Structure formats: structure tokens, C-alpha cells
Structure prediction request, 321 residues.
Amino acid sequence: MPDFYFEHQLEARGSRAPFVGRSPILIFIILNIIASLIASIPPAVYTVASSLGRYFDAIRTYGSDDIGLAGEIEAIFASIYTRDAYMIISLISQAALIAAAIFYCRVFEKRSLRSMGLVVRGAIPHYLLGFLIGGAMLAVSLAPAIIFGTVDYVGTGDFSVGIILLFLLGYIIQGAAEEIFVRGYFMVSYSASRSLHSSVLVSSILFTILHLGNSGSNVVSLVNTFLFGTFLAYYFIRTKSIFGACAIHTAWNFTQGHIFGLSVSGMPTYDSFFRFAPVGNLSVLNGGTYGIEGSIFTTVVLLALTLLFMLVPPKREYVEI
Prediction:
């Protein structure tokens, strides 16, 4: 398979900024730590504000009973972490990743927003098409699990339209944050001194590593996360706009969690239009507590799409090397 440049890579290679191509993985790690710490502040503030009164009540109730107090505090935090408000705030706070990526690329690498795939022209059509593709991908991945009886339809979900719309906003920000940070920023920066295909590979590995700590993750879910990242990377390359990849990512998560009521990368959901549930101990087929993205049915869908986008001949605007 021939290697090729695309115009965002050419701009990165043409930059004379000292940070371009210098220790890109180390810079990525540092930038991710800083952005993640900033993103953790709003959820932490909400947690403290929501738990303070209950914490003092627990102290008065349990006194010197350290075991009872510890159990009550654990229960307090567990109840907060599953609240819609906490999860929505956590999703929206991922905007810190977008800000960090843009700030670094503009200030230190002297790259344009266009080089990150933030191309205004055609952004809305790219986003709408990507949203449809992302939703369809999730539905196609889920269908075999339902047909083979490894996922059951439980019924309509309990939901508030307002809460679901807030989750949609959260996933719009969260999906864009991961795409802009991992692919719009890092993948293009890494390609400034390396081949495009190796840049896709490394960015997908880092994307997978970022999901290692998710609840319920296993070998299949990690393979699928890698394939998902690889597919989105090639989708970005083919369209030259990050907006389509952002929309696919958003629609995938939102459809999984709030249309079908399944866990999203290990995060449980409570407000959804419909409610489906995995059956038995068949996580390799239904994803278990991780969500359908931990299923081998999803592996087949993602592998097919990734190979398709890898093998489609580049357009004439691309330059083979």
C-alpha cells in the first residue's frame, strides 16, 4: 500500500516552529495530563458541593465508628458519580482537551486551525453525514447481538427529554475533544516527521491506552477501540475535515447510551429512549458491562470499515511518495 501525504500533514511539515516533530509522544502525554486535570475541576467542585452536607451528617451519625463512617462516605460518592448531573458535567468539561490542543498547535507549533481539520467550509454537511454514519455503525453492530439473543429488548426507557438533550450536548463536546486532541492535533503533528500510516498507527494506540481504565474493558473492547480510532483517522484523512470524525464519535456514544440504553465504554446510562440489556455471561458477543463496543460483532463492523477506508485509492489531491 503506497504511503501518501495529505495537505494538513504538508502544512505541519512546512512549519519551522521548534516544537514540530520534537518528542511528540512526550508532549502529548504532558498536554493530556494538564488538560485532564483542568477537566476534572468542574466535576470535583460539583462532588464537593453535593457531598459536603451529607459528609457532616455522616460524621454526626457514626461518630467514632470508623468502619461505618467509611462505608457511608463510599456510598455518598458512589451515589454522586452515577448522577446525571455529574456525568453531564464530566462530559462537557472535556472541552479542556479542545482548548489545550488548539492552544498548543497555534502557539507552539504555529499551525493553522485548518491543519487540525477545523475546516469551516462544508463543516455542517460533514457533521450531519458523520452523525448518520456513527448511528448506523452502532445499530449494525448491535443488530447481530439482538438476532442471536445475546442482547434483549427490555422496553422503553425512563427518560427526560431535557436530560437526554444535555447528554447529547455533552457527547458533542466529548466526541469533538477526543478527535481534535488525538487526531486533529497529535496525529498530524506526529506525521510532520513520519509517514502518515505510522502516524495513524501510533495515534490509535494512544487512543486505546486512554481507554484502558474504563470499567468492564477486556481484550475485545481494546481491539475495538483501536479499530475505531484507526477508522476515524482514515475517515479524517479522506474527508480532510475533523468534523465528520467528531460526529461519528458523538453519534456512536449517544446512540449506544441514550437510544438503546446500553453502557458507553463502561459508563452506565439511565436516561434512554429504549432499554436493551446483555444476556448472560456472553461479553464476547454482547460486550457485557462495557457496552456493545466490547462485542466481536462490533469488531467485524469496524474491521470492515477500516480496511475499506485504508484500501480506497487516494484522491488526486493526495501526493503519493
The radius of gyration is 21 Å. The chain has one domain: 4-315.
